[in-house]
Amino acid sequence: MKYNLRKTDDGSLLPEMYEKFAKMACGLHNRIQGKTRHRNRIVKHQTNLATLLVVKLASTL
Description:
By secondary structure, the chain is an all-alpha fold. It has one domain. Helices cover 57% and strands 0% of the residues. It has helices at residues 15-33, 45-60. α1 (15-33) runs antiparallel to α2 (45-60).
């Protein structure tokens, strides 16, 4: 996965990018908790994906 990170002139992330990441993490968390319509399709490895995503985001910041 590749994210199009918009950055300011000094190389820091724009505030809306943090918001985007927060929303994505929130969505993943809800999916893992099984709060979506397709409860039966929740796969165990999504937890690992969320962890990987958070680690990946942390390393890019």
